[in-house]
Inverse folding.
């Protein structure tokens, strides 16, 4: 469960007086990834601030708040690691222990974000399939409890991975391989299928229930767009960590795959705030509305009648 355990060999981070095309490729893509990380951290920071202080939270707002925290942590770790690796290229030796800690924290944030997005799509799917239970019998603190359990699960998984794979503890390669296979089965064999299936069911129900004069609820669009972006952009990085690392790809192929998967994973974690504000904005009031009102509308859990829909529990148009 690592993309840079032997970093200089895996990505070609060795200083040369005349840098080759692989090193230039790394520099160029890393610059784009770093820029994306900075923009994404700003966007997720705004979402965290609004949901914490400016928008009255509903059950799905709790999920989104935790997802924004996971994305922010992932982007921060990715930006830090890119800075450390660039310093290594320029003969500035980073702290090995600090590098390892940031790498493990990045895995933790990635796992937490994946599980939270799975919970969001699954919860929404259940609310559509069983609306009476959702309205009448759903425990009040279910979203907070689910988020807490998923954070604890991600922490436990990454603690075990660190114990068996962290290079400072002289790991056993066979034990590390076994841990990665177990986690790949959990993440790629359970979380991903559940996320995909629940999103597919949600999409079908949206298509069936949406007539010519009705638009789908904005929350449906937000969830489906977030899942689609994650599956297309963030999944390749997880596939490399858990599976392709052990294949032993050629150096050039490994470099290109790692660089692109990092860039796309940064785009995925940075895209959610943009999705929220694009879905929640109205053309007629785009420049006059506050960010809190736009975000609240994007997470509204009510049928979309027109652009002047009434505020809900996740909206505060006076902000």
């Amino acid at each position: 469960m690592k993309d840079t355990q032997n970093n200089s060999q895996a990505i070609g981070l060795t200083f040369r007086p005349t840098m080759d095309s692989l090193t230039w490729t790394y520099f160029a893509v890393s610059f784009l990834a770093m820029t994306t990380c900075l923009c994404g951290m700003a966007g997720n920071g705004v979402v965290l601030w609004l949901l914490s202080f400016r928008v009255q939270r509903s059950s799905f707002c709790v999920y989104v708040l935790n997802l924004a925290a996971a994305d922010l942590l992932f982007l921060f770790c990715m930006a830090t690691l890119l800075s450390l690796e660039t310093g290594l290229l320029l003969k500035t030796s980073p702290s090995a222990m600090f590098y390892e800690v940031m790498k493990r924290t990045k895995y933790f944030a990635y796992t937490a974000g994946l599980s939270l997005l799975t919970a969001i799509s699954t919860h929404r799917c259940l609310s559509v399939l069983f609306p009476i239970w959702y309205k009448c019998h759903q425990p009040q603190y279910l979203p907070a409890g689910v988020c807490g359990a998923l954070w604890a699960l991600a922490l436990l998984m990454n603690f075990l991975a660190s114990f068996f794979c962290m290079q400072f503890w002289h790991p056993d390669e066979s034990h590390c391989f076994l841990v990665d296979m177990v986690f790949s089965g959990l993440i790629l064999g359970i979380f991903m299928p559940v996320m995909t299936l629940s999103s597919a069911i949600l999409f079908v129900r949206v298509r069936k229930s949406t007539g010519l004069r009705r638009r789908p609820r904005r929350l449906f669009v937000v969830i489906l767009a977030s899942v689609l972006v994650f599956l297309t952009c963030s999944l390749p990085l997880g596939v490399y960590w858990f599976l392709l690392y052990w294949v032993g790809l050629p150096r050039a192929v490994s470099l290109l795959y790692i660089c692109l998967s990092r860039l796309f994973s940064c785009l995925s974690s940075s895209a959610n705030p943009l999705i929220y504000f694009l879905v929640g904005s109205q053309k007629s009031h785009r420049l006059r509305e506050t960010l809190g009102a736009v975000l609240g509308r994007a997470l509204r859990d009510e049928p979309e009648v027109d652009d002047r829909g009434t505020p809900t529990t996740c909206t505060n148009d006076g902000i």
In short: Residues 176 and 310 are 54 Å apart (CA to CA). The chain has ten helices and no strands.
